[in-house]
Amino acid sequence: MMRPFLVSLRRVLPLALIGILGATLSCDKGTFEPVAVASVEVNGGGGNLRLSESRQLTPILKSTEGWILPTQGVSWTTSSAGVASIGPSGQVTALARGTATFTATAGGVSGSSNVTVIGVQSIALAPETLSVIVTQTRALTATTVVDPGVSVTPS
Fold it and tell me: Is residue 16 very low, low, confident or very high in pLDDT (cuts 50, 70, 90)?
């Protein structure tokens, strides 16, 4: 006896849901206004990055009510493409010594963070000039100057 009731519910229920959904969407209360971006923060920046290392920057978009919003539509720029590059997902790659500012923009609002790329400042050889004959050997001394946080291992 229950089977005919279940079969009829399976036919009627989808139609009832479509009717309810249609009535909800046609009401003024069922429409949604887009939420504006009020602030953009960039996480993962700051600190040092060694040459050729990468780091992920993450944008955090917030509404005026403090809601965290989806990050679709975020665009990235760098103040110094020669120091570090940034991809569309916020992946930073260190290219040369220096500091770069990365800016995430969404909905006309921006937020920034800095990354400092560290490495070897200079290498000096002593003596600067050297004369030797074919069978002679002479020693050279290499002196490196590095940024704080960088270590150099002689080879």
Answer: very low
